[in-house]
Amino acid sequence: MKKRLTALLMAVAMAVLLPATAALAADDTQRDGTAISINVVTDGAEREDFSEILTVEPLGNGSFDAGSGRVNFKFSRYDCRDILFTAADGYAIEGICATLVYGLDGSRGIVSSGGGMLADNVKGGSTVTVYLRSVYRVVYHDENGAVLGENTAEALAAGRTPLAISNRPMTEEQLREPDADGSQEGHEYCYSALDLNTCEIIAAVPEDRAGYVYDGWCVGAPGSETKLSPGTVFYGAAYSFELLDGCDGEADRVINLYRTGAPVYTVTVRYENEEGETLREPSEKTVAAGSRYDVLNGIDLPVGLSHNGVFYVFDGLKEGAAAEKIADGDDEVTFVYAADAMGGADGGPDGIADKYQAFIIYRANDNSLGTVSVPGEAIDLREDIGAGLSLENVSVSGSTAGAKPGARFTGWTLNGREAGSGPVLEYTFDTVIPGAVYTFVANFSA
After folding, report:
1. C-alpha radius of gyration, the chain, whole number
2. Residue 355 backbone phi and psi in degrees, to 5
3. Domain 264-339 belongs to what architecture?
């Protein structure tokens, strides 16, 4: 209503001021309905007043009325004219949509011209829509605020693929809807309906500085930051640029992106036996500050180690240490290994620490008089070992005595005491001490 009223007032004023002798010739008059309307969309929103951000210059004998947003021409031969559009500093023409008259000599459509965009042979009575976007300077900072690099405030910021300047709408292939977070990774065009705005492809994180690990960029005020991963598109429809302008306290169209990351702490692992002797050189792993980590993962963890002729197997962390932690500084952890000298079929190591087994030996008192079917065994006590050092009611039934011709079996003994009268040994210990060796003797006589 405001535009229409202004246009009517101007028309009345012109009628009063122009003398009759200044009347236009019949073939050079402005015909009814041929005025061209200008519609401006800035950052996805229509603008009522665009006089300060866009210059509309009719080429030839015409004029632009900022109040009504209309271009008025004196048409002499063809019902079409040329219009030059130029964006003010801080804005760029993203695209122009107009109804053009083709087939005439010199018709060029919509092209760049003299720092602006020329709409050539615009049809009278049509509407020209000019899409503008705000131009922002994108500055990349490290976590301490130092500038790592920036995209200059040019009309087409570095690192983005601009929309083609065309009077035709985008094709289906060119239209790309952003994801929920606004990113359009891998898409050529940054365009969604009328939401045309700054499109910045987030830069790769620079080489990590010693002592830090980085995983992206952070934008926004503290407490309401948004993390942007490298390679994604910083898309205008998904983020409030006006809010982000407040990051540096100035409304200067600067978007500050701060590198996100955390200090890196070192976890040192030492390898010792139960006596505190070092079995091998320490290992290290790094973890990001504040992260949850398991000291048993991501580190060299041998199942067994040999030292001074003794074989050791992993037996856990040093007493008082926890496997899962939150990284809050450098840490040191000791992996403890326990001796594994016997228990295997060949009499050597069996992969279980000796302290978690009881070892049983079966032998004859005289090999010339008789034999035993099983020479020995190891009893795995890991499931039964609790806080105590001994176990109750542990049974064995592992060997059979056999007398040779002319001899007879007289019974089993353990430490000189009777342990069984039958050839098949069946014995239950009152208590068993883990790591101890028990010898059962099959007695024979001639």
Report:
1. 45
2. -70, -10
3. Roll (3.10)
d(CA 79, CA 100): 10
Greater confidence (261 vs 209) lies with: 261
Helix (H, G, I), strand (E, B) or coil at 141: strand
Give the type of residue at 373: S
Q: Is 197 exposed, middle or buried (0-12, 13-18, 19+ CB in 10 A)?
A: buried
Measured distance CA(305)–CA(282) in Å, rounded: 13
Q: Which of 256, 296, 40 is nearest to 150 (CA)?
A: 256
Domain positions in the chain: 2-14+29-133, 134-162+172-263, 264-339, 354-445
Q: What is the mean pLDDT of the chain?
A: 76
Hey, is 281 helix, strand or coil?
strand
Give CA separation, 193 vs 35, 41, 44, 162, 178, in Å.
27, 12, 8, 15, 11
Asked if residues 214 and 205 have their Cβ atoms less than 8 Å apart, the reply is: yes
Please report which helix (H) or strand (E) contains residue 4, including its range. helix 2-17
Q: What average pLDDT does this structure show over 102-127?
A: 78
Position 11 confidence tier, pLDDT thresholds 50, 70, 90: very low
Model confidence pLDDT, tens digit, residues 370-408: 999 999 888 888 877 765 566 788 888 889 999 999 999
Q: Which residue has the higher pLDDT, 391 or 8?
A: 391
User: Looking at residue 224, what is its pLDDT?
Assistant: 73
